[in-house]
Amino acid sequence: MRIEVLGTGCKKCDNTADAIREVASELGVDAEVEKVTDPQVIMQYQVMSTPAVAVDGQLRHSGSVPTRETITDLLGQ
Question: What is the pLDDT of residue 9?
Fold first, then answer.
């Protein structure tokens, strides 16, 4: 599973990436988490507010640091 955290590199984006890694590890989900700061890539996903999360190329969350429950849903658990 490939997860992209889309944003400018702000603290919320860092927190989102860290939280996803932590929950994935706890659930035993094999997930590659990558922070994406390139504005052109972010625009391709039509993100209006960050942080945003794309899972396997599909935008799944945007505008806030996702809750643990949301992350679990994103990971398909």
Answer: 84
pTM of the model: 0.92
Distance CA 1, CA 50 (A): 21
CA–chain centroid gap for 2, Å, is 10
Q: Residue with structure tokens 């603290």? A: 11
Answer yes or no: is pLDDT of 48 > 80: yes
| Separation between Cα atoms, residue 50 and residue 62, nearest integer Å | 6
So which residues are the catalytic ones? 10, 13
Supply the DSSP string of 10-56, one letter for each residue.
-HHHHHHHHHHHHHHHHHT---EEEEE--HHHHHHTT-SSSSEEEET
Measured distance CA(23)–CA(35) in Å, rounded: 16
**Two tokens at 11?**
């603290």
